[in-house]
Structure formats: C-alpha cells, structure tokens
Amino acid sequence: MNYIYSILFSATLLLLSPTVICQNWNITYEASINFDTLERIDKSDKSQADLEKLKNDAENIVSTLLINQDYSSFTDNPILNNENRRKLNLVKILKGGNYYKKIKTNETFQVPRSTPEILIKVEPFTWKITTEKKIILGYPVVKAINSSSINTSSGIKKRLTTAWFAPSIPISSGPKDYNSLPGLVLETESSGGLVFRAIKISTSTNLKIEIPDYPVISNEEFVSQLKKMRESFRN
Question: From CA 170, how far away is CA 12, in angstroms rounded?
C-alpha cells in the first residue's frame, strides 16, 4: 500500500512540477521544544533540575525557508527573533545551524553553529509514508516517518522523526534537512523534542539564493573533528 501511495505522489509531482517549481517560495517556520517527548537518559535529581533550567531558557525561534529553481536555504530570521545571548536556548542548539540544498542534485548541506565556515554534506532521509492526514494552513498534509541511527560526537544515537508534507506543493524541501518527500514539509517533530511548524507560506519573484563557498566535508569527518576538539580540551 505504501509503495502504491508513493507512486501516486510521484506521478502528481511530475504533472504539477512545471507550474509549481517555477515559482519562488518563502515559508516561515516556528521552532519549539516539546518537553513532553524530550528524551531523558539520566533521570537523577540533577538531570531534572537541569531540564527545568532548559525549559526556562528555551525560546521559540523563527526561521525562513527560501526556494527557487536551483537552491533552497533554511536560515534564522534575525528580524523576528529576539535572541538573548546570555541564555542557553535549547531550540537554537537542536536546530543545529543553517541548511542549504541544491535542487537539481538533491544535495543538502549544513553550516553548523559550532563551526560556521564549513559545509557538512547531509545524507537524505528514507521515509515511510503513512495514510494519516490532516490540514495545515489550509493544505492537506500526509504523515511520513523516519527511523534511523546517526553518528554524533557522543556516539551512535537512534532518531525518530515525524514529518507532515503537502502533496499539492510538490517541492521536495522542508525545514532543516527534512526533505526527500514528494511534497513540501510543513511540520516535523523529532525524538529529541524539536518541533517545526509552518506559520506562513507565500510566493515571490526574483528570489536570489546563494550557498556559502565553504569547504565541504562529510558528517563522519565533522564528528571526528569534534572528538579531537574534545580530547584537546581535556588534555
């Protein structure tokens, strides 16, 4: 059933893409933390106290996804964000930086917050499309699920991500690196508690997007660099 569903969406993408993809899109997302689903490995009193501090310091942030025929960019909106640099904002930390995509080659890159002058090539998600549906901003959306393991500086971690995409906007883009679906992703939630919700969708003309001209490395190389940095701090 899922296979047939994917074929139908792919056919829709082919039929509608000449009209839709020629447009330039501007989508505004709000990012937040769902603390009810936040994974808690350590349930000690200290961990709970730290969690309460994170809750108090967490502030929703607004990001913008821009899409033209060649590229897309997902970056923070400095005008709509009232950032307090004295606070450790978990929302901004989990977002992980800015993201760029080459539309024609389906390549996604991350510019991390910790090392802002490199491009990390991000591997695409493999999604399981379900039959669940709902409405977001007037658009019918379909639920997709990804379950995978990711390599981090603290080891291999399991990740479960839920995405809601709009087949009527057959653009394979979304917030962060949540793309590779036959429709624009309007909402996501990860097992780490990070939530993205589209709050405004518009089209525009003459939208210019540039991917930073930084060295490109793999996620494995980036994780190796972080581990070396940690070891140097310890010594």
Answer: 7
